[in-house]
Amino acid sequence: MSGIRPTSLDHCSVLVTDLAAARRFYRDVLGLPEIPKPKTFDFVALWFDLGGGQTLHLLQKPQPDTVSPRHFALRVADARAMREHFRRHGVETQETGPIPHCDRFFVRDPDGNRIELIQWLEEYDPATSGAAALD
Length: 135
Known about the structure:
By secondary structure, this protein is an alpha/beta fold.
């Protein structure tokens, strides 16, 4: 195998149709700091800082993405508190199958994009928590 290898996730892009609703959800409900998009862009986009050089990009399009299990995940310090936070904001939470040593759930943004919120209680160890074989 080559010595060339990705080092981290840089960004994730999500399609949105209603910029104001998306901004309220990602900035005001999720609490992500909005940052300016590159000045060279000639299209509508919102950028949010996820920390550590990682960003979330919202791209305005006339139609939303097809609703599917596709998602991105955000790590949180307290999944239980995040569930309550979303309930207070009227955002439905969806429980999902367990992963050893984590607490996680899903929400959908105003366009139906699926977002996983995950709190690792212990670092994932494939040797003890992983499946017996790769798919």
